[in-house]
Design a protein that fits this description.
2 domains, 4 strands
Length: 114
């Protein structure tokens, strides 16, 4: 690969990283039908949070570059993993729910509701 191509790829990579980071930090500007930013009453652009697509691109970019994070005790990512039922990077089934009838289902059965 020649030197010019490497520098072009590096420059594009840097731009992509900067755009992704900016969108994640600030959000995306709301645009009108002409593609111009919608401004607030102070003349500043109105931003909306990053979409799931942007977050997924950023996640995949980090994965492609080999970045990983090991959850530390009390870390936000550790809490998310716990809530999603993840252990050791693998999905584990949530505990079985009780099949004992509750008050609402017993009342439905008495009233003949299916």
């Amino acid at each position: 690969m020649n030197k010019k191509r490497k520098t072009t790829q590096a420059a594009l990579s840097d731009v992509l990283d900067k755009v992704l980071l900016q969108v994640i930090r600030k959000g995306m500007p709301l645009l009108n039908k002409d593609g111009k930013a919608i401004l607030d009453n102070k003349g500043k652009p109105i931003f909306t949070p990053a979409t799931a697509n942007y977050l997924n691109v950023a996640r995949q970019r980090l994965r492609d570059l080999g970045y990983t994070k090991i959850a530390a005790e009390g870390d936000e990512i550790e809490q998310l993993a716990k809530e999603l039922g993840l252990k050791d990077g693998k999905v584990h089934p949530f505990p079985r729910l009780s099949i004992e009838p509750d008050a609402a289902s017993t009342a439905d059965q008495r009233e003949g509701v299916a």
